[in-house]
């Protein structure tokens, strides 16, 4: 578990990791079953599992994550239906960021060397999303990406590298819109 949290190669089959994933699976089932409950009740559930939950933060169920305890949400963050966060390491989402339905934020990564990959080892690279960012429906945010404040990510985009503050990117791979 310590190697995973440090972003080093780790064995995903480790008993401690499997136990943490099982706990997150039970928590997400509870959270998703609370879809008809007030946002304040769901926010209380978020605070049970997530690293940080700013005032007014909302995640609309269904929502899925690997662990939960590596996710930090700023004030007024909004994630729409069917978002997935694979949080083997830190995922930080800044204040007032809006994330559309079906977005996936992925920190889990795999070795490029086929021999090491064959062992089943994995590692993580943190994702940082700034403040007042808008991420369109179905976008994929890949491991290690940083998105600057006020950026806009087009629907269906695959973000493979950092996005500058205030930039608009779209496509696969996501590229900056020319002014």
Account of the protein in words:
The protein is of the alpha/beta class and 179 residues long. It has one domain (2-176): UDP N-Acetylglucosamine Acyltransferase, domain 1, CATH 2.160.10.10. Helices cover 22% and strands 28% of the residues. It is built from four helices and 20 strands. It has helices at 2-5, 15-33, 39-49, 114-118, and strands at residues 10-11, 52-53, 58-59, 63-65, 71-73, 78-79, 83-86, 91-93, 98-99, 104-106, 108-109, 121-124, 127-129, 134-135, 140-141, 146-147, 152-153, 158-159, 168-170, 175-176. The strands form four sheets. A seven-stranded mixed beta sheet has the order 3-6-9-14-17-19-20. Strands 2-5-8-13-16 form a five-stranded parallel beta sheet, with helices on one face. Strands 4-7-10-15-18 form a five-stranded parallel beta sheet. A hairpin with a 4-residue loop joins β19 (168-170) and β20. The radius of gyration is 16 Å and the shape is globular.
